[in-house]
Specification:
Layout (H helix, E strand, L loop, with lengths): L4 E9 L2 E6 L2 E7 L1 H4 L13 E8 L2 E7 L5 E6 L6 E7 L3 E7 L7 H14 L2 E7 L12 H7 L3 E3 L8 H8 L3 E5 L6 H8 L9 H5 L11 E4 L5 E4 L24 H4 L16 H8 L4 H15 L1
Parallel strand pairs: 3-5, 8-9, 8-11, 9-10, 11-13
Antiparallel strand pairs: 1-2, 1-4, 2-3, 4-5, 6-7, 12-13
Helix pairs in contact: 2-9
This protein binds guanosine-5'-diphosphate (GDP), magnesium ion and zinc ion.
Length: 302
């Protein structure tokens, strides 16, 4: 038997995984011993790097799952020990997509997606689609985000404006699009990956139903290199709960001030000598972003 070869899991169904190895996709079994290992996390998900052995010419077996750099996951609440539900391993970036025109941008929701990305250790990129509908007073909010370090890409699936920017952001990385229904995610993905031919009739998207009812999690290879993650759970991202104690660290612009609060466990909502509140009053922190922090905090306490 030859040395196991390293590959990337691009599809995972029970007992079998599709692994991309040197540009080809091969179906593999999971080695029985791996399947039976006691676990609190999924053994093998899309984005995992694995070692594949070839005991005979017809058989490919995943013999090892390599350690994950990052895991994009959610906790499965319920009885017994909490279980981690990993949606994508080694996800590099989240393209948080909104648009000009309809539906209108909700910065609270944008901030929620950004916070989730920070919490998961994934790089967020803000995509503003339908740039063809951009009005002259539509862009004031962007500078606050760019100052924090979040790039904002103006694009249009309708005219093709800025699509090259997205293509270069996606190159050689594992990425996923998130955002509300109707902003044009499917339209953008169809431009980037025409072979996928996603349904852009947004009615079917609204409830996650429609043509693709039995969708499994997959990584789609991009023509210029890299992969686009498509997993049903990503759609529910906006409803994920966040641990309140982690929240202030998910607003990177607070980092600079946080250490100067008088109280070590300052919630930055009512305490005296709170450096964050002082910075909001002095104009160093965007008041809208601070408002998002306060709201998300109330929500995670509820
Ligand atoms: N004007 C304009 N309309 C767009 C653009 N991209 C998508 N749309 C329209 O927006 C609607 C929703 O698009 P869709 O891709 O289904 O959004 P999704 O729900 O985020 O996947 C469709 O009617 C599209 O034709 C764009 O760049 N400009
Ligand atoms: Mg869609
Ligand atoms: Zn404080």
């Amino acid at each position: 038997m030859t040395e196991p070869i390293e590959g990337l899991v691009v599809k995972s169904t029970s007992g079998f995984v599709d692994v991309a190895i040197e540009g080809q996709v091969v179906q593999c079994r999971m080695r029985g011993r791996l399947k039976n290992t006691p676990r609190t996390t999924d053994i093998c998900v899309i984005g995992d790097r694995v070692k594949v052995a070839c005991p005979d010419p017809q058989t490919r077996v995943v013999v090892e799952v390599l350690p994950r750099k990052t895991r994009f996951s959610r906790r499965q609440p319920g009885r017994g020990p909490e279980r981690e539900d990993v949606l994508v391993a080694n996800l590099d970036q989240l393209l948080v997509t909104f648009c000009y025109g309809q539906p209108p941008l909700k910065t609270r929701l944008l901030d929620r997606f950004l916070v989730i990305a920070e919490h998961q250790g994934v790089e967020p990129v803000v995509v503003m689609n339908k740039a063809d509908l951009r009005g002259s007073d539509d862009s004031g909010w962007q500078s606050a985000y760019e100052a924090i370090g979040y790039p904002v890409l103006d694009v249009s699936a309708a005219t093709g404006e800025g699509v090259g920017l997205i293509t270069s952001v996606l190159r050689d990385k594992i990425s996923a699009f998130v955002g509300p229904s109707g902003v044009g995610k499917s339209s953008l993905i169809n431009l980037i990956l025409p072979s996928l031919d996603l349904n852009t009739a947004s009615i079917s998207d609204h409830h996650g139903k429609g043509r693709h009812t039995t969708r499994v999690a997959s990584l789609h290879p991009l023509p210029a290199g890299g992969f686009l993650a498509d997993t049903p759970g990503i759609r529910e991202l906006a409803t994920w709960a966040l641990p309140v104690e982690d929240l202030d660290r998910c607003f990177p612009e607070l980092d600079h001030y946080r250490g100067d609060c008088a109280f070590r466990s300052c919630s930055h909502t009512h305490e005296p000598q709170c450096a964050i509140i002082e910075a909001v009053n002095a104009g160093g922190i965007d008041p809208e972003r601070y408002e998002s922090y306060v709201r998300l905090r109330e929500e995670s306490l509820a």
